[in-house]
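Repro:
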Amino acid sequence: MRAVIQRVSRASVTVGGEQVSSIGPGLCVLLGISADDTQKDAEYMVRKILNLRLFEDEEGRAWSRSVMDRHYEVLCVSQFTLQCILKGNKPDFHAAMPAALAQPFYQSILEKLRSSYRPESVRDGKFGALMQVHIQNDGPVTIELTSPRGPIDPKQEKQQQTGSKGPSERSRHRPGPDTNASGGAEGGVSSEREH
């Protein structure tokens, strides 16, 4: 599973000229599900999205608070194009989970996000629709995240098995150049495959 996580001042999704979701400060998450993703990938991604320390604390110290710490919102948008494999200059999307399987899998990720945080603070786009995603990136801060294919950290594995919740995790990721949106820029992002 791949995600592009952007710290935003605001973000919204429009379908057919009608706004279907919007958030104030928080995270906009573009999520690409691969054909071989499992619930373990989903759990990893949910944990990282909610615990990445991308925000300042009350004293202005950078990289100190998560979206949950700040009580901000999350806008999650399914985007199969993140599973693109280039064949020459032509994108190939066969690595993406087929839409019939991806839709319930994506819904389960949204449910995990809502049950792990506050349901009213997690919004999403419209699965399978041609969406316009308007993102006002704050920073810009953009994190690319891929779920691990092999065994994950033993401490995290133990927490998953016991169901215990540890403290917020520190992100080891550093924000890189923002190629998806810049402060104030808006860009259209297509969602799942149309059949």
